[in-house]
Design a protein that fits this description.
Elements: H1 2-13, E1 28-32, E2 44-51, E3 56-59, E4 62-64, E5 71-77, E6 81-91, E7 94-104, E8 115-116, E9 118-124, E10 129-131, E11 136-143, E12 148-153, E13 157-161, E14 163-168, H2 173-178, E15 188-198, E16 205-208, E17 210-217, E18 223-224, E19 229-231, E20 236-242, E21 247-249, E22 256-260, E23 264-268, E24 275-281, E25 285-292, E26 295-301, E27 304-309, E28 313-315, E29 325-334, E30 338-344, E31 351-356, E32 359-365, E33 367-375, E34 383-392, E35 395-402, E36 410-415, E37 418-424, E38 437-442, H3 458-475, E39 479-482, H4 494-501, E40 506-513, E41 527-531, H5 537-550, E42 555-560, E43 572-580, H6 584-590, H7 593-613
Parallel strand pairs: 8-18, 10-21, 29-33, 38-39, 38-40, 40-43, 41-42
Antiparallel strand pairs: 1-2, 2-5, 3-4, 3-6, 6-7, 9-11, 10-25, 11-15, 12-13, 12-17, 14-15, 16-21, 17-20, 19-20, 22-25, 22-28, 23-24, 25-26, 26-27, 29-30, 30-37, 31-32, 32-35, 34-35, 36-37, 41-43
């Protein structure tokens, strides 16, 4: 392992160069984008790679800077459809040419007005739905502008009107998150027809089809689809099509109870949307009251719903008891490294945990207060006070006030039907970092991660930085765990698992950045840190501050981000994007030992200052 690591260090520090026989001959190597690739931006894109050092490069008629090591990076305008980057590299020895063909999406395309057509893409509903009274169904399709549109639900309603509008897609996330404030654009397209229907209590459907119809005045110049129907009496032509999703409406006389079957379940805000409840244990029960495609809706409270994957639950037989539990008492148990708050329940219920600096709010969905007792362990010095409230009919909330201003992690789990919340105590740090256990994750592998213009891979640099940081932290007394020690494959979800199973207090995940298509890399680059839970934000800010002090690159900021390596609750988790490996200057820095040492010094000092303050 030592020989392999030393070889890796030597390899990364080597500058990119051509062999002496080819050193002065023009050559072009495009790293990104690849020939035939489909881009995600429709108006601009970057292209980078390497050419012969000290040569002159032109891309699509524009002069592009060539860095001393031959690296280049350009940010150019593009157009929808097939787009070609034409490259020419020249010096005194000759000229080399290359081209890269890419596919550019046309997000704002509009169907020609001299036709009558309906597009299948973008229709709603696009998956089967099982809904209840009161639910609102949204209908949408894209067709020829200027027509008259209706929708029908087979066996229920017929020819309800739809409205034509200029449809605005969601803003491109890449520019919203990583771009400058003036670079965001919202894509519009005309000829989008929308409608809605609210299900009535008496409605009942079984796998009903949705029929769209688009009509317009008949003209000789119209290009008609084969299935278009002409009505010469009214001088109109119409076209019908079916939505791909069908509708079922169920009247629930007996509530459908479901049980979580995954070892760890995520409850989302909507089908495929953001996280609502994290890390729900197996065996939790809830009421299901709807389904859209593979997503099942569950009722958490009178005004709160969530969504879970159909494949991660099982349906329980009719007559299964409603997921409810009286909560009679709360007690705490003191342990060497944590305090456990124990809530006895009669069955496993969904829960949600929210944090403030010295406070934890624990909401239990289906919990009903009958709480007359809160028993504090006499040896517990962590918990200041526990109070409860009944927020809604079936939402019970604990407010746990702590005696330490910084939280160091928690773990919520079930012991039988007892809900247990383990709250970590601050580790006993004797001197410098002595007493602190830190896990370091070298991001990526076996996949390369981001790749620099001269071919330097992120997984190589991440591992090199991880070892440098490991040795530095150990010099200052910390115990260090690596989630990977070489180029072996380590599954993404195994990385935080290794950190928590080792009993780590802090997890640092090391990465080097790249941008999504359409974001200008010349004004968007630098060092950045990422966190998910509020408990990790002070550490992320401390590390970011120290890195900005030491590195001669821009401050790219601190971000809340839902990454696998930032979501664990049991420890403080920070992901560090040390530099932009796609940016030629910063890729060169990542080959430089002095710069890499400044990176790990910054991380170390950020951890140290955080520990002193908290």
């Amino acid at each position: 392992m030592i020989k392999k690591t030393l070889f890796l260090i030597w390899l990364i520090t080597l500058p990119h160069s051509f062999s002496s026989a080819q050193e002065e001959l023009p050559a072009i190597n495009v790293v990104y984008p690849k020939d035939g690739q489909t881009l995600t931006s429709s108006d601009s894109a970057f292209i980078f790679g390497w050419v012969t050092p000290r040569s002159s490069l032109v891309i699509n008629g524009l002069d592009v800077e060539v860095y001393p090591n031959g690296a280049f990076l350009a940010f150019l305008g593009i157009q929808p459809g097939e787009f070609i980057f034409e490259l020419a590299d020249s010096n005194e020895k000759g000229v080399a040419v290359d081209s890269v063909r890419v596919s550019v999406p046309n997000y704002s395309s509009t169907i020609s007005e001299d036709s009558l057509a309906i597009e299948k893409t973008g229709m709603l509903p696009d998956v089967d739905m099982n809904l209840r009274a009161g639910d609102i169904i949204q209908f949408r399709f894209k067709g020829t502008p200027g027509g008259k549109a209706t929708f029908s639900i087979e066996g229920l309603v017929f020819n309800l009107p739809m409205t034509q509008s200029i449809f605005q897609n969601e803003k491109y996330w890449g520019r919203e998150v990583f771009g400058d404030k003036d670079s965001t654009n919202q894509i519009q397209s005309s000829g989008v027809y929308t409608g809605a229907y609210q299900i009535k209590p008496e409605d009942k459907l079984e796998n009903a089809k949705v029929i769209f119809q688009l009509s317009r005045e008949l003209k000789d110049s119209l290009k008609l689809a084969p299935l278009a129907e002409v009505d010469k009496v009214s001088n109109t032509v119409s076209l019908k099509t079916f939505a791909s999703g069908r509708i079922t409406v169920t009247q629930d006389l007996i509530p459908q109870i479901i049980e979580f079957t995954d070892s760890v379940q995520i409850v989302r805000t909507g089908p495929g949307l953001g996280y609502l409840l994290l890390f729900q244990p197996k065996g939790i029960r809830a009421i299901a009251n709807g389904q859209i495609g593979e997503w099942v809706r569950i009722k958490l409270a009178p005004s709160q719903e969530g969504w879970v994957k159909l494949g991660s639950i099982k349906l329980l037989p009719p007559g299964t008891s409603i997921p409810r539990s009286k909560i009679n008492l709360i007690r705490t148990e003191n342990r060497p490294d944590r305090v456990s708050v124990i809530i006895p329940l009669s069955q496993r219920l969904p829960f949600k945990i929210e944090q403030d600096s010295s406070e934890i709010l624990l909401s239990i969905f289906g919990g009903i207060s009958n709480t007359d007792w809160v028993k504090y362990n006499p040896e517990d010095e962590l918990i200041n006070q526990i109070s409860w409230s009944q927020l809604q009919e079936s939402v019970y909330q604990l407010n746990i006030k702590l005696n330490q201003k910084q939280q160091w992690g928690y773990d919520a789990h079930y012991d039988g039907t007892d809900l247990v919340l383990d709250i970590n105590k601050k580790p006993k740090i004797e001197k410098d970092l002595d007493g602190l256990k830190i896990a370091i994750d070298a991001g990526h592998s076996p996949e390369d991660g981001a790749v620099g213009p001269t071919g330097l891979t992120e997984k190589e640099v991440n591992l090199h930085l991880a070892y440098r940081l490991k040795y530095l932290l150990e010099e200052h007394g910390a115990e260090v765990v690596l989630t990977r020690g070489g180029m072996e494959a380590v599954e993404l979800y195994d990385r935080p698992k290794r950190a928590t199973e080792a009993g780590s207090h802090i997890l640092i995940s090391i990465h080097n950045n790249a941008l999504p298509d359409g974001v200008n890399p010349f004004i968007n680059n630098g060092v950045s840190t990422y966190y998910y839970h509020p408990q990790s934000l002070p550490l992320a800010r401390s590390i970011q501050k120290e890195l900005v002090k030491r590195l001669d690159i821009p401050d790219y900021g601190t971000y809340y981000a839902s990454f696998v390596l930032t979501r664990p609750t049991q420890l403080l988790c920070v992901l560090v994007e040390c530099a932009f490996i796609m940016y030629p200057q910063q890729e060169m820095m990542l080959r430089d030992d002095k710069f890499k040492q400044e990176v790990v010094e910054g991380i170390y000092r950020g951890i140290k200052k955080f520990c002193r303050e908290f």
